[in-house]
Amino acid sequence: MPERTILITGACGEIGQALIEALSEDPQTTIISLDLKTLPGHLTGKTTHFQGDLLAKDFIKEIENKYAFQEIYHLAAVLSTTAEYNPSLAHKVNTGITLDLLELAARQSQQIGSSVKFLFPSSIAVYGMPDLETKSSAPPVKETQWTEPTTMYGCSKLYCEKVGSYYSDHYHQLDDQPPIRIDFRALRFPGIISAFTVPSGGTSDFGPEMIHFAAQGKPYRCFVRPDVRIPFMVMPDAVRSLLELSKAPLEKLTRRVYNVTSFSYSARDFQKFTESGFPGAQITYQPDLPRQEIVDSWPADIDDQAARSDWGWKPKYNAKDACQGYLLKNIIAHYA
Ligand code: AKB
C-alpha cells in the first residue's frame, strides 16, 4: 500500500515535470498531478494526471472527493512577464487557487486527523530594489529585506507566503474548531535553468533561453542589458531543495519562507558560457525596457544562510558545475 499521496499542481511546468520524475522514484508514493495541459509522454505511468482548470471549483472538488493528500506541491502560477499582460487573471490564478488549495488542505487535515504539508515555490520576484545603485551595492538580500515587489507576480507570491503562514499558525484563531494542521513551507527561488525544458512567461528566462537557442543553432536576441545580474540555480538543485525542505523536521525550522540560491550570473556571463559551449552562437542585445526594469528590481544575489543552517541546504552545482557539468552535457544530448 502506498504510504503517502501527493498532489502536484502546475505539473506540466518545468519544476512540475522534474518533481514528478524525482518523486516517482519512491514506490511508496502515489502522485496525483493537475494541469491545464496534457501530461508530456515521458511522464506516463509516473503519475495519475487530471487535465483541467483549477479556477473551476468543480475540478478541485472532484479531486478532493477522490483522494486524501499528505503533501501538496502547489506549483501552478502565471509567471512574471505573462502576469503583467493580464494582472487580474494572474491575481486570480496566483492567489485565488492558492487559497482554495489551502482550504482543501485544512479540510483534509481535519478529516485525516493529521497534518498536511503544503510546499510553495515563491520567488526572488517578491523583492524590489529601489534603484540600480542600491542593487549593486547591497549585500546578498535576506528574507526580511526589500520585500517591495513591483510586479503582480511578485505581489501575489508575497501574499501567498503570508496567507500560507497564516493558515499554518493562526487560522481560525478565535473559534474552537478542531485543530487544523497545515504545515506550510515556501522557498524563494531564483531563476531556474533546466537542461531539458525551456521556460516561458518569466522574466529570468533570458539565461535559459540564450543557452537553449544556441544549442538549437538559433540566433538569440537578449531582452536585457549584458550587465544585468540576478541569482540562478539549476533544476536538480531546485527540486532537491523542495524535497529537502519538505523532509526537514518542523522543530528545526525557524521560519516558513526560505531563500535558496546557487550562483549569481549576468546576461554577459551566460553569453560567455554559451559561446564557449556552442561556438558560433549568435547573441545580440535589444533590451525591452519594461522587462529590463523588472529584472533590475530583483536582487543581484540573495542570502540563503537560514536554509543552510536550519535544514542543511547546500547547492550541489556552483556556476562552473552547473554550466559545464549539468547544462552543457545534457543540453547537447537533449537536442542531438
Ligand atoms: C519569472 O521570471 O517569473 C520566474 C521567477 C524569477 O520566479 N522565473
Helix content: 40-55%
Q: Let me know the average pLDDT.
A: 96
Principal-axis shape equals globular
Beta-strand share of residues: 15-25%
Strand order of the largest sheet: 3-2-1-4-5-6-10
DSSP E strands, number: 12
CATH class of the domain at 77-191 and 233-262 and 301-317: Alpha Beta
The helix-strand sequence is EHEEHEHHEHHEEHEEHEEHEHHH
- Calculate the terminal CA-CA distance, rounded to whole Å: 40 Å
**Would you identify the CATH architecture of the domain at 77-191 and 233-262 and 301-317?**
3-Layer(aba) Sandwich
Helix vs. strand class: alpha/beta
Work out the radius of gyration: 20 Å
Under CATH, the topology of the domain at 77-191 and 233-262 and 301-317 can be stated as: Rossmann fold
User: Which blocks of ≥5 consecutive residues have pLDDT under 50?
Assistant: none
Heteromolecules bound: 2-amino-3-ketobutyric acid
The CATH superfamily title of the domain at 77-191 and 233-262 and 301-317:
NAD(P)-binding Rossmann-like Domain
**The biggest beta sheet, please?**
7 strands, parallel
* Total number of helices: 12
